[in-house]
From TrEMBL:
Protein keywords: Methyltransferase, Transferase
Keyword Methyltransferase: yes
Name this polypeptide is given: Methyltransferase
GO terms assigned for molecular function: methyltransferase activity
Pfam families referenced in this protein's UniProt entry, alphabetically: Methyltransf_12
Source organism of this protein record: Micromonospora echinofusca
Length: 388
């Protein structure tokens, strides 16, 4: 991936086991295919699709099942998945059912889906954590679409983050990017504290969620604990309570606060231009207006401070089939420049948005063994100027 480093910043050196990563990619491809089959099977099971040769449209599905308006984009994205997977064939503004549909008959049954998930778990242990969330979301898909079951009850049953957390646990790709985040934050904090021997570095993490990135970053900053303030923020009080239990003990420099990155920092009690690093991991895509979101991040930072963004930069069917059930996934405004059928920005999109918001020195970091056009995740880093 193209890499533009700010002056004086060394290249990142986080290691990656190529063989393990290759096994992960192979397994993830298999899980994606399973998800596509599950989706097709679920729609067959509820008589949403006609026999092969018949056609179906988004409006027809929406009206038949009483799909809530906020899931209109999800409906379009689901049909696009089935089109690319070969179960449907686009025909104008409708989709023709192909003769591949009979292949998935019966897969939606709980026992059959569970058996296939077990087979994949055994064959591809590197992606085992992806399967429980996928099967759970697809089993409740129609109930979420028509509003009988809130998406959060599916993603976080009983308020538990276990299903989502399993995706992030022992995940070679996500671990790699979390370590990249940690290395880049550590590098900036080190340089700042060396330049200001009596200073204190302030790091603010927005949308910290379940803390998947927080742990590696805190570990990387441990040697400067007596010269550090780390502010763990999220809009959800549940996440803050969980994080306080998980990270709070023995870290007097760690504070917790509610913060909505879509709102002005000033209006939420945050001092403008006071932070050295703003960290955002897999959260900024879930905002309505990226321009105003990035301006708010810029306003938090001192001139010369950095924004460290860990984000998906390519649409993945797995994410549509799972996290796509959450209304927040589709919050972006109609005129926003996002990757089609997703809330995401690609690398050039991030560069343009950051520069428009007053940032400079944009860096893009990816997996070194992957071709740039196939990168699905990126570490994006940019430096705040005196603007905004």
């Amino acid at each position: 991936m193209t890499e533009l480093l700010t002056e004086g910043v060394p290249p990142l050196t986080t290691p990656l086991d190529p063989a393990r990563y290759d096994r992960f990619r192979t397994g993830f491809h298999a899980v994606t295919g399973f998800g596509q089959r599950l989706l097709a099977a679920r729609l067959v099971a509820v008589d949403a699709l006609p026999a092969p040769g018949g056609t179906v449209g988004v409006e027809q599905l929406r009206d038949r099942f009483g799909v809530l308006p906020q899931y209109d984009r999800l409906c379009h994205a689901l049909l696009d998945i089935l089109d690319r997977a070969g179960y449907l064939r686009r025909a104008g503004d409708r989709f023709e059912v192909t003769d591949r549909i009979p292949e998935v008959t019966g897969l939606a049954a709980d026992g059959v889906a569970a058996a296939e998930a077990d087979r994949l778990r055994e064959a591809y242990p590197e992606v085992a954590g992806y399967l429980p969330l996928l099967t759970t979301c697809q089993a409740r898909l129609v109930e979420v679409l028509d509003g009988r079951v809130p998406a959060n009850e599916v993603l976080f049953p009983g308020g538990s983050a276990d299903l989502v957390s399993a995706v992030y646990r022992d995940n070679v790709q996500l671990d790699f990017f979390n370590q990249l985040c940690a290395e880049r934050v550590q590098s900036h904090v080190r340089q700042f504290l060396q330049r200001y021997p009596r200073g204190y570095a302030e790091v603010l993490e927005v949308g910290a969620g379940t803390g998947g990135t927080t742990g590696p970053v805190l570990a990387a900053l441990g040697e400067w604990a007596d010269r550090l303030r780390y502010l763990y923020t999220d809009v959800g009080p549940v996440f803050l309570r969980l994080a306080r239990r998980q990270f709070g003990a023995g870290r007097p420099y760690l504070d917790f606060a509610r913060y909505n990155v879509e709102g002005s920092p000033d209006d939420q009690g945050f001092e403008p231009h006071s932070v050295d690093v703003v960290l955002a991991s897999n959260v900024l895509h879930a905002t309505e207006r990226m321009a105003s979101t990035l301006v708010n991040c810029h306003r938090l930072l001192k001139p010369g401070g950095i924004l460290v963004v860990n984000e998906m930069t390519r649409r993945l069917d797995y994410n549509t089939l799972t996290f796509g059930l959450a209304e927040g996934w589709w919050r972006y405004a109609d005129d926003e420049a996002r990757i089609p059928y997703s809330p995401l920005l690609d690398g050039p999109g991030w560069r343009a948005a950051l520069e428009q918001a007053g940032f400079t020195g944009v860096e893009l970091h990816g997996v070194p063994v992957v071709d740039p056009v196939e990168q699905v995740q990126s570490l994006v880093v940019a430096t705040a100027t005196g603007r905004h």
